[in-house]
């Protein structure tokens, strides 16, 4: 819920999610074994000013609490994450064929992590990060654009780091636009990778953050009326200290996260289509081809070469809409507990929504219509046919 008059606004968001999943990992009876996960989110945000004003302020505070209890392997994890950030937008060039702006950001995040299992206990592990960032944006009325950004992060656990990115777009003609970007990024290990959470997944305190450099270049092709578009993009990045996993005990198949030696190379092609067929019928489709290899030229585990999605949305009336989507994940290789070729799978999802009033929307989603049995990680089955019913509101 919140308030927004275009010049100032405030928003309060609260959500809670609970999920229980049964599992069967061994030959013996595990009828009482299950994992229950819960996540609660509170977020308060607000702004003062508009994009047409010289100055615009934004501030947000959030608190996330997540816990996972596993019966059978007797393990519990508890994570609390608090975040506060402030952003200042300076729109110093607001009139004429060119618009320019600068954004300054300050961010603070603190994470508390506790884990208890039959094998180990991790009490009150903490990670805090303080960041400052800046971004410059340029836009020309002929659809040319440029943005340059940088971010400095002070971490309590890992080395301080600087990351940056530059991106640009050029309108070549009415139906063609060229775009590209290049940047440097840092990805810190997850708390479970660094500290572990059970005897089957052991922490690695020697883990280092992933460091990557890379970019993309693409061509956007649009119809004259902008109802149809096709975006072709080539991407490539080199990653050092890529975080993977390895089995450290051939008897229990316990594993841990590790940094790969040398440079991991990831490259591929993305093709994305968006279309408006009528005023009430729209559709999309996309395909991604990815090649990911480590320093020895061996393909990375759990990385499908082929992925694709497609969907349509039909607005039956002003209030009632329906949608259908299809997603495909290609074959890949898993290494836990042994090398295994994972089969491809295709999922079909259906949905409908109804606008009850100006502030409230009801929806129903039927996911995995065919009740397909599949795994993203060997040994961890995903949900079969599932129905979600809910309400979305804004006030």
Automatic annotation (TrEMBL):
Residue window of motif TonB C-terminal box: 378-395
Its membrane topology: Multi-pass membrane protein
Output the SUPFAM superfamilies linked to this UniProt entry: Porins
- Tell me the Pfam families matching this sequence: TonB_dep_Rec_b-barrel (PF00593)
What are the BP-aspect GO terms? cobalamin transport
Query: Subcellular localization, per the record?
Result: Cell outer membrane
Task: Name where it mostly resides.
Answer: membrane
Specify whether Zinc-finger is a keyword of the entry. Answer: no
Which key words tag this protein in UniProt? Cell outer membrane, Membrane, Signal, TonB box, Transmembrane, Transmembrane beta strand, Transport
Where do the TonB-dependent receptor-like beta-barrel domain residues begin and end?
34-369
Taken from the UniProt entry, a GO cellular component term is: cell outer membrane
Q: Which PROSITE patterns match?
A: TONB_DEPENDENT_REC_2, TONB_DEPENDENT_REC_3
- Tell me which family the UniProt entry assigns to this protein: Belongs to the TonB-dependent receptor family.
Name of protein? CirA protein
Source organism (scientific name): Bibersteinia trehalosi USDA-ARS-USMARC-190
